[in-house]
Amino acid sequence: MSVVALKPGYTGEIKDRVENFHGQQLLYIGWEDHLMFCAPLCIPVPPTLPFGALTAQIIPDLYAAHPDASAIDWSKVEWFSSSQPFTPDLSKSLADNGLGHKASLRFRTPGLTGIKGSCS
Amino acid sequence: MNMPISGKPPKKLSLKENYALLTRGLGWETSYESMDKVFPQCDFEGIKIHDWDKWEDPFRLTMDAYWKYQGEKERKLYAIVDAFQQNNGQFNVSDARYINTLKLFLTGVSPLEYGAHRGFAMAGRNFKGAGASIAAQMQAIDELRHAQTQAHTISHYNKFFHGMHDPIHMFDRVWYLSVPKSYFEDAMTAGPFEFVTAISFSFEYVLTNLLFMPFMSGAAFNGDMATVTFGFSAQSDESRHMTLGLEVVKFILEQDPANLPIVQRWLDKWFWRGYRLLALVAMMMDYMLPKRVMSWSEAWGMYFEQNGGALFNDLARYGVRMPKYHDVAAKEKDRLSHETWGIFYNYTHAAGFHTWVPEEGEMKWLSEKYPATFDKHYRPRFEYWRDQQKKGERFYNKTLPMLCQTCQIPMGFTEPDDPTKICYRESHYRDNKFHFCSDGCKDIFDFEPEKYVQSWLPVHQVYQGNCFRPGTDPTAPGFDPLLEVLKYYNFNVGKDGGEYLDSEDKKHWEQWTGKPGVSI
Predict the structure, then answer these.
(1) How far is CA B149 from the centre of its chain?
(2) Which InterPro entries match (chain A) (predicted)?
(3) pLDDT for B397-422, tens place per residue?
């Protein structure tokens, strides 16, 4: 049983299926130990976007207001996809890296632990 | 038609006879149509009722008594509201920051009162027993009254402060108002038994003290006698609703042993949904009241852990246990308000009320109330934000957040055992990923995914292009998506939300009252 409904066989419309995003897909990005940004961020991106564009431009722009942002060493960053350790290929697209619609990507920056080490 | 032929007045019924005729005599077994066709929603949830006459309403309220009591309450309330308005009572509150709690209440809570009116009217229609129907009908009328008295009382503030001009429109659109809206619509789209268990018991009985006590005591502490008065006027109804809530659960459980696992699942679900909704109250108590009543952590300890614990002990004889994840709520009580206020501080430019960094004295209070968490985890970010603000660089988060599929709150809550790690949970269903802020929210989705795949998540709706006014052209040169979304919300852009210290509300307050405002 996947719903308690008056009508047998009732199904719901998936409101956020990828076709509704005009060729884009959603990507969630969370920076571990930096909770001054209160929650992971959600951005629409083309599935063909090279992963390297995230590190070169997109993520630094998203977190520019954080004092640790300029100190990120991208060669040391640890990545997680759906909470599992993950090694991206920066030259390949998000899709080729296995990051589909509503993928949840997290990164940890060893040595950077937020404002005064508070994980803020 | 009731004129006695003999000329003698008819014998006046005793209250007991009157109530019996109202709640038993009004119901009958239908003959032209089957009872199942007349009451089509009574069975699909799996609840078995064998004898509706076992329904006992401890108040035994009759219609004439009901109208008399309610009429008296209305007269008292409106006399006080009139006096409040004529005396410019709005200028006697502690500080204009307090008004933001009213904005949150009017846009986030009053529409729930109206939702409750609709929900109880539907539940009343769908119960086969006249006693339960009458109780639901009276509550439906109560809830409509609450929505009205709140709108009438707070409308006076709307003449002087921003953010209160269009609450129902906002309720149906604004990102954080989707949290209370989805909570209530989840209940209304369930069957009648789940609805009353969710709202009458889990909300009204178990959690309501955590909503009304902070708002009404907060109003009293902060000099807002108008709000205190509508609170009192509603409170006497609330005690009847709470009694109804307990009766509902006991009645269902006593009718058939097979009802227990269904009811327990609802208690688990609606405890968690209600608790997540109360995150808004937590931040109100710890951050938005210039004069504080008690901390969220203290309120949770008193009203849920002690009182709620005693209640569930009493219910243990029916086989009911404490709601699942109550232990998680206990672990979160020293961080819930701070994390929630952080969310609104991040996105206040897209909200209908103001946020601010607590003043130094307020941070001291927070340190005292939260010795294990505030200085370690939250004070550093507030001090940084304050420094940035002094430099003219007030922090706003410019990117929309990831939301929980079930509670719809930005994913700002942390792991039960680690306040430095965001809690991520995920499910796969019909080739899609769904994300949750907690095990509680994930469990709710996993049991009924066909319901929650339909969640209207504001962030995703913005990205789909569904949150602009009709006729908006997103391809036009200079298109500003955030500005257009705020117009769709019918916000006065730059006036309703944003930093309090930069606000027109603050400027007006100082100008009109001559009282010194807060500063950094």
Answers:
(1) 16
(2) Phenol_hydroxylase, Phenol_hydroxylase_sf
(3) 999 999 999 999 999 999 999 999 99
